[in-house]
Amino acid sequence: MDADNRASTNQAPPLVDHNTVTSDLALVEALERHGAPGAVDALSPLGALASSAEAREHGLLANRHEPELTAYDRYGNRVDEVRFHPSWHWLMERAVGFGLQAAPWTSDAPDAHLRRAAGFFAWSQTEPGHGCPVSMTYAAVPALRVDDAVAKEWTPRLAATTYDFGLRPVADKAGALAGMGMTEKQGGSDVRANVTTATPTSVEGEYTLDGHKWFTSAPMNDVFLVLAQTGPGVTCFLVPRVLPDGSRNPLDVVRLKDKLGNRSNASSELEFRGTWAQRLGDEGRGVRTIIEMVAATRLDCVLGSASLMRRALAEASWHVAHRSAFGRLLADKPLMQNVVADLAVESEAATALAMRLASAVDAAHDPHEAALRRIALPLAKYWVCKRTPMMVGEALECLGGNGYVEESGMPLLFRESPLNSIWEGSGNVNALDVLRALSREPEALEAWIVEVGKASGEDPRLDRAIQGVLESLADTSTLEVGARRLAGRMAACLQGALLVRHAPAAVADAFCATRLGTEYGGTLGTLPSGTDLPSIVARTTPLAAR
Predict the structure, then answer these.
(1) Over 90: is that where the pLDDT of 525 sits?
(2) How far apart are the C-alpha atoms of 477 and 480, rounded to whole Å?
């Protein structure tokens, strides 16, 4: 047979070497407007590596070869270790090396958290599962600061840009990673129903824990923040895997979860039996102590979902730019243009909101920024994460049957797409948290009004949507039953205000018409007639080596 007859034709080439930072105009523009000079150039090496064929292969391998639990060694000693494929370590080494874990907390740069957020967003497009331990490490530091001595001991290791895998005393390690364990079998999100108990030892501030944790990701991390009951109520504790004398803290990894997605990451069930712990904060104040960790992980949920959207959009737009059907490139067909443009609008809105929230972390001492972060984080967590599965599913469909095949990488993205909506509070939890902020912190609503008001008069659909939110708040009898609708509307108004002020007119107009106006067709790919589809598609289609 002629060798040429064995070659496939009309297939899109692999999407590699497009630089997930510099080729993403929405990301680049967000960094520039939030005052991060030089950030794009600094992050360019990360974006180049993230889009490489090497990174893509490691991402697939880390998910194909899942972590394995070794409860006992060959001699019968309890070790509770998890073994990972080398590709997991390759990904982790580079994520930590780029400072995507706790490095911003020890940086003097005024835009350290924004740069880290952009890097986390761009790097997570390689493989989302390893972002979990990276994110938890980032989130742990503000909770540790409730105790100066504990923070001084742990923060330098958590912020180090050296990936040092293995269970050893933290003093012997060049870098460390953190995790958290809050939920239990009987309570889930209702952490006040936790039954794990903490018993004081003879040493002030030290306790032993007895109980369980139902979901604890990355059990090979070096230290965990957990909640347990003391006399006054739920209290926060620090639990190291290895004690200072080198002995293993008595902590059993019961099993690893068999999950829908996130399969490269080891999520475990833990049992505490006399496990040594150090108290963080006052007894009975555990939820307040750990709340900053919750806020930071919620931000990463938004960033992670926005990253999934961007990777899915890139794959879809790249495919249709190279695949022909019925005599023309798919990208030149009006209906496909509508689909890809709508995907692009969704992705850009998510990116804009995520970067705006990251910039608020750098300005935490500004009252407006702090109040905006308080209400906008649960809003964005609810809205962006909730819309990700629909968006990724539509992007997968752009590849047709090829998108349903594992080698395309799209099934991995689709399985991952519901996760961030569940992690760190499901949709209902975040919607109710919005109501809590509105009722207890009037400055939070004021911050939202000020933020969306910056676009006042720029688009009548946005103005009407904002007014509708304010009118709905007047009827307190229906707030809880309508909390999801309210949260979604408030989040969309924030996105709309950002796009009206900063995005190209075609993007902003398409968003306001469909997400805030009356022209939504029930699915993606239903942008109204007259939308400048080609310009939106061209803005988001990756270019090799761009």
Answers:
(1) yes
(2) 8
- What is the pLDDT, as a whole number, of residue 291? 87
Q: What is the pLDDT of residue 544?
A: 59
pLDDT confidence of 366, banded at 50, 70, 90?
very high
Q: Which two tokens stand for residue 538?
A: 């061209």
Alpha carbon 332 to chain centroid distance? 33
Report phi then psi at 253, rounded to 5.
-90, 105
Q: What local confidence, expressed as pLDDT, does residue 184 receive? A: 94
Q: How far apart are CA 264 and CA 424, in angstroms?
A: 19
pTM above 0.85, yes or no: yes
Residue 357 CB contacts under 8 Å (≥ 6 apart), including other chains: 299, 302, 373, 376, 377, 380
Among 257, 268, 269, 187, which residue's Cα sits nearest to residue 229? Answer: 187
Q: Is 237 helix (H, G, I), strand (E, B) or coil?
A: strand
**Coil, strand, or helix at residue 273?**
strand
pLDDT in tens, 79-123: 999 999 999 999 999 999 999 999 999 999 999 999 999 999 999
Give me the pLDDT at residue 187, please: 85
| Distance, CA of 109 to CA of 240 (rounded, Å) | 30
- Residues contacting residue 359 through CB under 8 Å, at least 6 positions apart: 34, 35, 111, 113, 114, 369
In this prediction, residue 3 has a pLDDT band, given cuts at 50, 70 and 90, of low
Query: What are φ and ψ of residue 466, in 5° steps?
Result: -65, -45
- Report how far residue 206's alpha carbon sits from residue 276's, in angstroms, rounded to the nearest whole number: 7
Nearest-angstrom CA–CA distance, 219 and 213: 11
403, 410 in Cβ contact below 8 A? yes
CB atoms within 10 A of CB 479: 17
pLDDT of 292 reads: 84
Among candidates 368, 84, 420, which has minimal Cα distance to 220?
84
Is the Cβ–Cβ distance between 42 and 12 less than 8 Å?
Answer: no
Which residues share a beta bridge with 198? Answer: 209
Tell me which residue of 17, 11, 88 sits closest to 49, measured CA to CA.
17
The amino acid occupying position 414 is: F
In the chain, the domains with their CATH numbers are 39-286 (2.40.110.20), 298-540 (1.20.140.10)
Residue-wise burial string across 103-136, b where 16 or more C-beta atoms lie within 10 A, e elsewhere: bbbeeeeebbbbbbbbbbbbbbbbbbbbbbbbbb
